[in-house]
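Instructor's aside before we start: the two examples that follow are unrelated to each other. I chose them only because their records fit on one page, so don't look for a connection. First example below.
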Amino acid sequence: MLLKGGHFDEARATDVLVTRHHVEEFTVPVVDSRSTHGTGCTLSAAIATFLALGQPLPESIRRAKWYVAQAMHGAPTWGGEQGPTDHFFFLRRDDAGRWPEVLRTPRASQNQESPP
């Protein structure tokens, strides 16, 4: 079970994975953005995608959290109080052509500025 955080601490967002065998925390800096609508659904879809690409569960969570943070950073500021994330942020990057391969590589980064 993944307990999603990010609503309590103003400086960091910590999710907690609880399995039969262990407990693991995943922490990233909080993104200063109003584009938070759908972050939970985006996170679960991203985790499922990385699992389908063959990543282990903890790695899938790390990459998914990075993806959600980038989707919040790149989101347009439309909408009312709470806008949507930008699921296609990577298409507007200079390195958009390399993203399919980047997402399949086994190495992940917790650096929010670089792809996983």
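Example two begins here.
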Amino acid sequence: MRAIGFRTVDVELTAQLSFAIREALHQPRPSQWTRIWPTAVAMSRWLLDQPAAALAASAKELGCGVGLVGLTLAHMGLRVEGTDREVLALAFAAATPSATGCSATR
């Protein structure tokens, strides 16, 4: 497997919470998963505004890409399963939590 280039992007969700997320660079296949989408930032911010009692104990993120929404949910204490059709997206999403202080399981 060839080396994957990446860049680290700081995503600030609130004044107290930001994550350093890796984005993949120069992917030959469709690379929608490689970016941090504005909708993922908006969803993460919305989730942070929800009362803890309104959230389930676990969540499944469909098409997780680099995993920002799942990371936000994990930060909030939920058990998260990320799914994506791209194996590299899953590898990036799985590596991100430990780099930011959240625990992750496969």
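The chain has a mean pLDDT of 83.
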